[in-house]
Amino acid sequence: MTTTTGHPPKTVSIRQEEKHTIASFFARAHLDNAERLGLCREQLISAANLSSSLLQENDARILPQQLSDLFQAIWAEHDDEYLGFASSPTRVGVFSLISERMINCKTLGEALHEAQRCYRLISDNIAFELKQQQDTVHLYILLTEPEKDTYHMLTELLLMIWHRFPSWLVGDDIPLHEVCFPYARPAHAEEYRLLYPAPCRFQQTAARLSWPSDVLQWPIRRSKEELRRYLKQVPLPWFRKPQYPRNITDQVSRLLEASPQEQLITLDAIASQLHMTSRTIRRKLSAEGSHFQQLKNNLRRDRAIHWLSQDYISLAEVGRRSGYLEVTAFIRAFKGWTGISPGDYRKKLRAPHK
């Protein structure tokens, strides 16, 4: 049952970028860094439509659009694509310039070599190196002064971009063998499951992506007009939840997302649709670092946060749309996800800049 204040009931559909949320850690880290650069924290929070109150909650979540707006605000004020994390500033627009060179190439291999050449010409902040070993190709991302990469934000971002953007160029997911990081596993590493669809290795000698070497022969399938539309949205495409049809975690997640909000599809039903046994799915999910119950909980959490932002919906209805018939069970689960009750969460959302 919904409660209204003169507003008609609205559709219960959720836009693609609202189907998942991002740890508020990333917003706090970039805001802390922006203050270090001399920018006004409160102005950035307002520009990104964030909530100062919610940002104080370690387990709070934000939308991809909010993180994208925060990046845009920092770029507008500081004019450095690398957000002050590199040895010297790199003007905003360099990525667009390089991508416009890449779109003219015939294959992904040619495009990556063109990107490597452009970065060498533009600055020595970051080095891109492609190395092939038998049937595997490694893309290394080397920072000139890694000590400036506070919280490893730039390393994480570049590794994510240079898997997602090449995948977009070829119109298909590039299968990752592994992703390596030159630092210890961070406290927010649980988020890496959404960032990188592959095993993550920490305390490695360098940051790198590892792909099958044959992907270098994949043709560039995007047009200049498609690139123009893509660049108008950057950085939002980098923060949206990607779809990886080869990844069992994504297949299960998509079936969960497509199921009724009040009653999520069961593992047995998913197993039937994927022509596998439930045991096989659990084993495959485990190998990818995920678990069925956690995927369900994450979906319920993200749906709940979305509906809490809609003032016309009662807490009981938010709970029902998140899969809980009893409001007490919903409140208990929500506090477990975010550390605060759904009522308090909604109050903090209503006072976004205070």
Provide the descriptors you would attach to this structure in a database record.
single chain, 354 residues, Arc Repressor Mutant, subunit A, 3 domains, 5-stranded mixed beta sheet, two-stranded antiparallel ribbon, 9% strand, globular
Quickly describe the structure:
With 354 residues, the chain is of the alpha+beta class. The protein has helices at residues 25-36, 41-47, 52-55, 64-78, 94-102, 108-122, 153-170, 192-195, 224-233, 236-239, 248-258, 267-273, 278-287, 292-308, 315-321, 327-338, 342-350, and strands spanning 22-23, 61-62, 126-133, 136-143, 178-180, 200-201, 207-212.
Describe the overall structure.
The chain has 354 residues and is an alpha+beta fold. The protein folds into three domains: 20-78, no CATH class; 94-227, no CATH class; 247-350, Homeodomain-like (Arc Repressor Mutant, subunit A). It has helices at 25-36, 41-47, 52-55, 64-78, 94-102, 108-122, 153-170, 192-195, 224-233, 236-239, 248-258, 267-273, 278-287, 292-308, 315-321, 327-338, 342-350, and strands spanning 22-23, 61-62, 126-133, 136-143, 178-180, 200-201, 207-212. Strands 3-4-7-5-6 form a five-stranded mixed β-sheet. β3 (126-133) and β4 form a beta hairpin. α11 packs across α14 and α15 packs across α16 (327-338).
Roughly what is the average pLDDT, rounded to an integer?
Answer: 89
Helices and strands, in order, run as EHHHEHHHEEHEHEEHHHHHHHHH
Count of helices? 17
Strand content: 5-15%
Number of strands: 7
Number of separate structural domains = 3
From the spread of the alpha carbons, the general shape counts as: globular
Low-confidence stretches: 1-12
Helix content: 40-55%
Separation, N- and C-terminal Cα atoms: 31 Å
